[in-house]
Amino acid sequence: MSVTWEGKVYCAVVLDACSRRVVGWSIDSSPTAALVTNALGMAIDSRRPPAGTVIHSDHGVQFGSWAFTRRARGSGLTPSMGSIGDCCDNAVIESFWSRMQVELLSRRRWRTRIELANAMFEYLEIFHNRQRRHSSIGWLTPIEFENRQPITMA
What we know:
By secondary structure, the protein is of the alpha+beta class. It has helices at about 35-45, 65-75, 90-105, 115-130, 140-150, and strands at about 1-5, 10-15, 20-30, 55, 80. The strands form two sheets. Strands 1-2-3 form a three-stranded antiparallel beta sheet. The chain has a two-stranded parallel ribbon with strand order 4-5. About 25% of the residues are buried.
């Protein structure tokens, strides 16, 4: 969540834990089930994950909502929530949010929600996926990492 002169802006992200690529995202003025369900829908449309793929989230009410669970299970995905108070459960996404805070959100103030949403779009799609190098994947960008991986079919 970030604040503009107009009010708060919430962002939900679906991250591929292997490549660190943002594969789905949604931005809205409130933290609703629609926010996370839209991000999940974008990830499903872009990846077409095989049935049984596990999607892990925290215990936020949005992730336990009927709409989110129905969308996940309807696509053959297996929703997973870690144990309460376990800092390692969501380490990959927490690291992502920490970097986004330092690299984008803490650097300036935005007047409008649209201005911040545009900055978030550029951060996610342009900077994070195509330019930012990650130590966990050999100092490659997520797209470079995925392009170097052999394609396997289950």
